[in-house]
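Dear colleagues,

I hope this message finds you well. In preparation for our joint manuscript, I am sending the Glutathione transferase (Lymnaea stagnalis) sequence together with its predicted structure, so that both groups work from identical material. I would be grateful if you could confirm receipt.
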Amino acid sequence: MPPVQPSQHFASCIPRNLKMAASKLKLHYFDVRGRAEVDRLILAAAGKDFDEVRFSLEDWPSHKPKSPYGQAPWMEVDGVPFAQSLAIHSFLARELGFHGRTSLEMFKIDEIVHLLDELFTLAASNYHIDDEEEKAEDARKIKEQEAPKFLGFFEEILQKNETGYLVGDRLTLADIALFDACTGFLSDYMELTHDYPMVQHNVELVKGNDKIAEYLVSRN
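The corresponding structure tokens are as follows:
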């Protein structure tokens, strides 16, 4: 019998009829907010229960072999592992009602999330610089040169949309991702000044969501 190709084997493991309300989700990530916090915020906004496995950097070698591609985060859906943070964000947003209503809204939301990931990647690279002087100088450049450029993009998107939200007239993945950028890991690399009133308002809208507000009080 010829060997089964990896893609065929993996496809055979994917649940054919996903029912999110009954599905069991398990999120695996380091014991920090990082790239998994957007997922936690979506799940909180939806009121969806999930299990979570958090581990330290020191314990990562024992968890790495369990991840699909040797990277974190990853998420199990009814026991089947899936990876790549942006893919996880998008999946949860679609299934839990925080993605676009039309294909063009989905396009715009994905565009914004990928744009934010560019800034996240810059900050993550800075985080791993060992030389303290080099690290400080790189962080200064991100905060003074790169972050204002991105914040300007989001300010303009919000001005054009005129609803307070980045896309459409309701809370979506785009708003949740921007909120996390402004209040989470990236907050050390940007200054949300009065030059960005629409972004400030958007952050307050997300923070004011009842379920997210409840989560923020209790989160680690």
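For the figure legend, we might mention the following. Residues 1-12 have pLDDT under 50 and may be disordered. The longest helix spans residues 132-161.

With kind regards,
E.M.
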